[in-house]
Design goal:
The structure holds two protein chains of two kinds.
Chain A (H helix, E strand, L loop, with lengths): L1 E2 L1 H9 L6 E8 L15 E9 L2 E5 L9 E4 L3 E5 L7 E6 L7 E4 L3 H12 L3 H27 L7 H8 L17 H4 L60 H26 L2
Antiparallel strand pairs in A: 2-3, 2-8, 3-4, 4-5, 6-7, 7-8
Chain B lengths: L1 E2 L1 H8 L5 E8 L8 E8 L2 E6 L7 E4 L3 E5 L4 E6 L2 E9 L3 H12 L3 H19 L18
Antiparallel strand pairs in B: 2-3, 2-8, 3-4, 4-5, 6-7, 7-8
InterPro entries (chain B): Boi1/Boi2-like, PH-like_dom_sf, PH_domain
Protein name (chain B): Pleckstrin homology domain-containing family J member 1
GO cellular component, one term (chain B): cytosol
Chain lengths: ~270, ~140
């Protein structure tokens, strides 16, 4: 299958913000051709860069191109029973897919990575955005209601908000918003907000339109599209379509908390 | 560049935000428009031969530009090489516009900007940071 590798490599190395970076040791996966093959586990130190739902790894921090990429959809991130301390694994729902075993050099580093990777999926981001859209809508409604009362001591800046075209309904489409082009353009061909966005005064941009909706994944009971939740949860997995973001979010937290406790207990047992 | 192909193939089989048979031309010398099944899943655009289960290819939709070309036609190009265009000819102008809108919003970067925008607006209106209750307010990717 072809990929637009050059563009992907460019995205990996350009100066758009990374969500998490750092050195990790990555377990080398070998194929065993012989029954008697003695496989020793080895690790390679790589520089990892997390951008959105993509985890890139480079041979060196200064390398101009990633060695590899892990697409983080439909995966779970868990602490793992490797011989190494501070090891965690990225596992996929896909039965045949191999896991990525990564080793950090400390507890805090490991936890930070597990946290960042668990929340890296597109669906998670979409849920947060939807939740905030709702909150903004509610805030606007209650603000509008408040401002009707004459005693309301709203500041002039609030009044300006209400008349600001940026507060038009969310369906209003921005004049020109392209996929990351305007923000991270390195000069050259980038579209700056300028002429295309007439509402760009004092940083008030028209609200972006609603993100596209994924068709319901309710039919896929195994929820292979559900981000990273499918460990030992007895209840049915929460479909990414759920409106209850806080529930989904606390499930992530629970999972990490449980694994962390288990790890700590195991540490106590093994190192009394 | 290595990548977890199995996972991408699995993603290609997921329910799509949008899918249609569209004529597509890749930016290769001498290439022509061919009928493809084009499928948008998260920030990837997969394209299949119409009778095959496995996609021919996938485009990661980050740092890309979606441009309306002539009637019924739009193109996708990427930041580092804007003249290299993947062209798509739709059945109608309406379909063309729908795809343009959907693709413009299909990137993680777009969602990040939306989130930052909403967060900022809510904070200005209510004085409260909406991300705090989720414990993600300090994360670098959500900063203005």
């Amino acid at each position: 299958m072809k990929l637009n590798e050059r563009s992907i490599a460019h995205y990996a190395t350009c100066d758009s913000p990374a969500d998490h970076t750092g050195f990790l040791r990555k377990r080398v996966e070998r194929h065993h051709h012989h029954a008697h093959y003695h496989h020793s586990t080895s690790y390679q130190r790589r520089w990892f860069v997390l951008k959105g739902n993509l985890l890139f790894y480079f041979e060196e921090r200064e390398s101009r191109e990633p060695v590899g990429l892990v697409v983080l959809e439909g995966c779970t991130v868990e602490l793992c029973e490797a011989a190494e301390e501070f090891a965690f694994a990225i596992r996929f729902d896909d039965a045949g897919a191999r896991a990525y075993v990564l080793v950090a050099d400390g507890q805090a580093v490991m936890e930070a990575w597990v946290k960042a990777l668990s929340r890296a999926s597109f669906d998670y981001m979409r849920l947060v955005v939807r939740e905030l859209e709702k909150q903004l809508e509610e805030a606007r409604k209650s603000l509008a209601a408040c401002c009707k009362s004459p005693r309301r001591s709203s500041s002039s800046s609030r009044k300006r908000h209400l008349s600001n075209p940026a507060l038009l309904p969310l369906q209003e489409k921005p004049a020109l918003l392209e996929n990351g082009y305007s923000t991270w353009g390195s000069g050259g061909g980038s579209v700056s907000g300028g002429a295309a966005c007439p509402d760009h005064d004092e940083g008030h941009v028209k609200p972006p339109p609603l993100p596209p909706r994924r068709r319901s994944a309710a039919s896929s009971a195994a929820g292979s599209s559900a981000p990273g939740l499918l460990l030992a949860m007895p209840e049915s997995p929460v479909s990414p379509e759920t409106a209850c973001f806080s529930k989904l979010h606390s499930w992530y937290g629970q999972e990490i908390a449980v694994l962390r406790r288990e790890w700590q207990e195991r540490q106590k047992r093994e190192h009394p | 560049m290595r990548y977890n192909k199995g996972e991408l193939l699995s993603l290609a089989r997921q329910p799509a935000e949008k899918a249609a048979e569209i004529l597509m031309r890749v930016p290769k010398k001498g290439s022509v428009l061919k009928k493809r099944l084009v499928k948008l899943v998260v920030n990837f655009l997969f394209y299949f031969r119409t009778d095959e289960a496995e996609p021919i290819g996938a485009l990661l939709l980050e740092h890309c530009r979606i441009t309306k070309e002539e009637e019924n036609v739009f193109s996708i190009s990427f930041l580092e090489d804007p003249e290299r265009k993947y062209c798509f000819e739709c059945a109608s102008e309406e379909q063309c516009q729908e795809w343009i809108e959907a693709l413009k919003r299909a990137s993680y970067e777009f969602m990040r900007r939306s989130l930052i925008f909403y967060r900022n607006e809510i904070q200005k209106m209510t004085g409260k940071d909406p991300l705090e209750q989720y414990g993600i307010s300090e994360e670098a990717r959500f900063q203005l």
